Amino acid sequence: MIRPITKYGEAVLRGRATEVTEITADVQTLIDDMIETMYAAPGVGLAAPQVDVSLRIFVADPSSGRRVEALSIMINPEIVEREGVQSEPEGCLSVPDFEAPVARPTRVVVRGLDRDGNIQELEGEGLLARVFQHEIDHLDGALFLDHLRGLKRDMILRKIKKLRRSGTW
Ligand SMILES: [Zn+2]
Fold first, then answer.
1. Which pLDDT score is estimated for 45?
2. Residue 166 CA, ligand 1 centroid: distance in Å
């Protein structure tokens, strides 16, 4: 089932999401719904707070569904290795229609659980590394906007404020 995507301004996007302690049927349904919602958006990653669930889960697929093996599902992820720096334009389904360059490590290794509860380590480079970091940020209540400085950030926030005031956000 496709779930509505939460937007900038909603409290669930700013809290620290809770660890998953048991992979229940509800968690499995949530994961299926997150995958469906990500592909429908379409997006290359989605974190549980973006469907209004404050749990530490994300899904990612930089191929947007073109390659089955490109789908990653991560429960209780943590970054265990970081390397290099890349700066590329980044956006977010919860901050629709805005984009700005964000500096992040080029390569990361993420450790967490797969949907069966087995420990897994996934390595990401380039776009995949960016998606992993962006989604883990969501689990800590952070948005890509928080990485921006000065004018660029102020301009986006001002535009969002205007959209919210006019009821079109
Ligand atoms: Zn996002």
1. 98
2. 23
Which pLDDT score is estimated for 150? 87
- Report the separation in Å between the CA atom of 118 and the middle of ligand 1, taken as the mean of its atom positions: 25
- 117 Cα: distance to centroid of ligand 1 (angstroms): 24
Residue 108 and residue 136 in contact, taking contact as beta carbons nearer than 8 Å: no
Q: What's the 35 CA to ligand 1 centre distance in angstroms? A: 14
In the three-class reduction of DSSP (H, G, I as helix; E, B as strand; rest coil), residue 58 is classed as strand
- pTM, entire model: 0.96
Instruction: Name residues with Cβ closer than 5 Å to ligand 1, which is an ion.
Output: 92
Confirm whether 135 is a catalytic residue.
Answer: yes
Q: pLDDT per residue over 22-46, tens digit each?
A: 999 999 999 999 999 999 999 999 9
Pick the closest to residue 163 from 77, 98, 113, 106 (CA basis).
Answer: 98
Within 10 angstroms of residue 48's Cβ, the number of other Cβ atoms is: 27
pLDDT at 64: 87
